[in-house]
């Protein structure tokens, strides 16, 4: 799971001004412009829309969404993911103005979703369905455009295009086939061209080369027709008649749903490519809606965030949204003054570009990931459904199967029975519901009467039917002279139900206290083996039995690719602090460094000095390339109490270590750090001051200094209040700690050592 600084409400830098890096943004905008022109033309062709509609969408998308800047470095424009939807509406309405009205409605819906601050709900779709949808669209695009390459015209359905391919091959138009296949070959080969030549976008090279060849050779092929230029090519949205209202509304809803999911997934993916401000997804969704509304009004295609353009934008050095805005300006100027050049491009060349785009939507990396996590069947069903039945039926099939698998996993019960010679051990994991009762009863029936049975319940839910089945069996077994002891890990589902106070949902402490056992033994004085009485061993057994299955795919992946944590988290060794829970992190997300008092000794560079902390810092910054360092102190810290009480009396290693904290003690005596609410004890006040002191000490390390100077590292001071169970963040501008919540996004940049 993401670190808090990856969310729109997390502490991050104040966004740079629009003209804070004009040189980098202008250069990046030119790169994106060169990519956007051929893609905008090609997507319009694949959608069955007027060619000008793609250019309008490219102009409006970058300009409007760039000005709103929910995701500053994301570039918006017409996307391949919407081609199937638009093509279907073009076939249905036979009037582009009605399609444009559906685009307007889709934009209005997106604005409403963003204004309602529920953008993240759009991400609640199985990745297998999303990637399957895109792959199905990619295959659909490729099959349709192959007919144009071969000199024919595509059918309205992918399956028909596939079946008609053999006949089309026998009746191909040689010049068109030559240009289309040459375009594909250039696109595939360009990845092996060395730098600096490879810095030129492959799509631009392929289109210009093939177009130039068609002109020089005088080939008779169909070319783009802008129908009189920019102004005369506009087809404004029209108010639909009564007979079209329902179809337009359904089209608008479909556009809003697909465009929102695609844009927000792109924004999240874009955030992973840079170290600047994180995306505000609600604001970005409003920006996407405004772009689609205006694009539709002007007769343009629907737009989304486009990962190809966004990644190129970041790689080219873009720093602000000015790059996205300027790329739209360049498109506008190109169309107005150099539109005649566009009309020289053969349709078969754009078709070759689209075949390449469609093939790339079938992403092998995504397929491997889905196979690892057991989601490949959802992907395959979605792809097949989109290609054979169409976009909406295909998505419906994928979502339905994903829900079925989800329900199966949520209701899956794992029952293991071991034992002999009058002693049996039963492990029950997963979710105990009425669906799993047959498996549970079959397992319990294998246990002979008058035996001693230990049952480990490691379940995340138990319904009434499952409780009654287990409880009735227990009473029956004990009535026949047997003995049943039930140990519950995680939640006390059985114990609470037996007392007449059943739970209806998991406790919010489940994640934090999952390793603690809640015992429901009839007698606790019985002698037991070490393996059943030692809490740590019990926890390890529970991990092997349940949690291991859940985390194995992720850990297996991390073992193969290595760790790439987002942050170094320096905190106290106190047992009450669980870093992963504080930042909602998964394995591999954070690199943790713990010691007594979350102390960072000043870097001296002298051999023989304490290197335990310094080595961790250098490894995190220089090797792991973390972008964030957090120093997190906490309330009721024993180290702070020892500093106030005179650590010298402790003697030994502990006293020598705490000597590194005396500078925080001196700082506290001179200017203690304030808090909101204020601390009630001296040691809690010192703990906050200590956090500020240690963050400043971090900046004595050369590796940290270099990373900060390069703009690759940010430092934060946090404080965890145990009694309030709240994380607070140091705000240098106000000199206080404030709760990590909605207000944190207004925090100033992290601390710097005073000059």
UniProtKB/TrEMBL annotation:
GO terms for biological process: carbon utilization; transmembrane transport. It catalyses: hydrogencarbonate + H(+) = CO2 + H2O. Residues 24-378 form the SLC26A/SulP transporter domain. It is an enzyme of class 4 (lyase). Keywords: Lyase, Membrane, Metal-binding, Transmembrane, Transmembrane helix, Zinc. The keyword Transmembrane helix applies. The chain crosses the membrane at residues 26-46, 53-76, 96-116, 128-152, 172-190, 197-219, 245-268, 289-308, 328-355, 376-407. Pfam families: Pro_CA, Sulfate_transp. It is a multi-pass membrane protein. One of its GO terms (molecular function) is zinc ion binding. Binds 1 zinc ion per subunit. It is found in: Membrane. Its cofactor is Zn(2+). Signal peptide: none annotated. Zn(2+) binds at residues 572, 574, 634, 637. Its EC number is 4.2.1.1. PANTHER family: SULFATE TRANSPORTER (PTHR11814). This is carbonic anhydrase. It comes from Luteitalea pratensis.
């Amino acid at each position: 799971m993401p670190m808090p600084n990856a969310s729109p409400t997390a502490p991050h830098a104040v966004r740079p001004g629009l003209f804070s890096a004009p040189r980098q943004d202008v250069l990046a905008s030119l790169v994106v412009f060169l990519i956007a022109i051929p893609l905008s033309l090609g997507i319009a062709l694949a959608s069955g829309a007027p060619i000008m509609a793609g250019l309008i969408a490219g102009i409006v998308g970058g300009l409007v969404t760039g000005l709103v800047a929910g995701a500053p470095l994301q570039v918006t424009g017409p996307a391949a993911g919407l081609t199937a939807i638009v093509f279907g509406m073009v076939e249905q309405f036979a009037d582009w103005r009605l399609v444009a009205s559906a685009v307007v409605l889709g934009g209005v819906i997106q604005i409403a979703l963003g204004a309602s601050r529920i953008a993240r709900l759009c991400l609640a779709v199985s990745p297998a369905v999303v990637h399957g949808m895109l792959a199905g669209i990619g295959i659909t695009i490729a099959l349709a455009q192959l007919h144009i390459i071969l000199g024919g015209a595509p059918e309205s359905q992918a399956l028909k295009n596939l079946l008609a391919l053999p006949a089309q091959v026998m009746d191909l138009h040689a010049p068109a086939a030559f240009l289309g296949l040459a375009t594909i070959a250039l696109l595939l080969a360009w990845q092996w061209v060395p730098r600096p030549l490879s810095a030129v976008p492959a799509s631009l090279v392929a289109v210009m080369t093939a177009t130039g060849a068609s002109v020089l050779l005088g080939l008779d092929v169909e070319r783009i027709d802008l129908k009189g230029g920019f102004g005369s090519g506009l087809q404004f949205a029209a108010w639909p008649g009564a007979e079209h209202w329902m179809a337009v509304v359904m089209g608008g809803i479909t556009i809003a749903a697909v465009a929102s999911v695609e844009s927000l997934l792109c924004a999240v993916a874009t955030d992973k490519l840079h170290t600047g401000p994180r995306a505000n997804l609600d604001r970005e969704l409003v920006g996407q809606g405004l772009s689609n509304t205006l694009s539709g009004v002007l007769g343009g295609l629907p737009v989304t965030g486009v990962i190809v353009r966004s990644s190129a934008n970041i790689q080219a050095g873009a720093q602000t949204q000015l790059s996205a805005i300027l790329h739209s300006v360049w498109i506008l100027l190109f169309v107005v003054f150099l539109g005649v050049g566009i009309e020289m491009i053969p349709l078969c060349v754009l078709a070759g570009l689209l075949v390449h785009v469609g093939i790339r939507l079938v992403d092998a990396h995504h397929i491997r990931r889905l196979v690892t996590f057991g989601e490949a069947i959802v992907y395959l069903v979605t792809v097949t459904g989109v290609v054979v039945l169409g976009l909406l039926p295909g998505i419906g099939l994928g979502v339905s199967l994903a829900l079925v698998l989800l329900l199966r996993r949520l209701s899956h019960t794992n029952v293991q029975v071991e034992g002999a010679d009058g002693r049996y051990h039963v492990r029950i994991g997963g979710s105990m519901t009425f669906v799993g009762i047959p498996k549970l009863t079959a397992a319990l029936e294998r246990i002979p009467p008058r035996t001693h049975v230990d049952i480990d319940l490691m379940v995340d839910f138990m319904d009434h039917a499952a409780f009654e089945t287990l409880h009735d069996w227990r009473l029956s077994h004990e009535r026949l002279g047997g003995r049943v002891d039930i140990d519950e890990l995680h939640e006390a589902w059985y114990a609470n139900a037996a007392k007449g106070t059943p739970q209806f949902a998991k406790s919010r402490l489940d994640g934090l206290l999952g390793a603690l056992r809640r015992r429901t033994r009839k007698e606790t004085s019985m002698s037991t083996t070490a393996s059943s009485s030692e809490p740590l061993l019990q926890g390890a057994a529970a991990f092997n039995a349940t949690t291991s299955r859940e985390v194995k795919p992720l850990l297996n992946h991390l073992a193969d690719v290595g760790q790439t944590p987002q942050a170094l988290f320096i905190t106290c060794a106190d047992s009450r602090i669980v870093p992963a829970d504080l930042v909602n992190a998964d394995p591999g997300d954070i690199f943790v460094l713990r010691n007594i008092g979350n102390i960072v000794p000043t870097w001296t560079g002298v051999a023989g000095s304490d290197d335990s902390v310094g080595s961790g810092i250098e490894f995190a910054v220089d090797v792991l390339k973390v972008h964030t360092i957090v120093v997190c102190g906490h309330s009721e810290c024993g180290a702070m109490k020892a500093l106030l009480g005179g650590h010298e009396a402790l003697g030994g290693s502990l006293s020598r270590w705490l000597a590194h904290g005396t500078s925080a003690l001196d700082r506290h005596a001179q200017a203690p750090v304030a808090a909101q609410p204020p601390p009630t004890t001296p040691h809690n006040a010192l703990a906050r001051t200590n956090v500020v002191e240690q963050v400043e000490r971090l900046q004595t390390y050369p590796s940290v200094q270099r990373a900060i100077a390069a703009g690759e590292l940010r430092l934060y001071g946090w404080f965890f209040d145990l009694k309030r169970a709240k994380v607070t963040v140091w705000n240098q501008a106000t000199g206080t700690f404030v709760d990590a919540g909605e207000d944190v996004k207004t925090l100033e940049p992290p601390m710097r050592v005073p000059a």
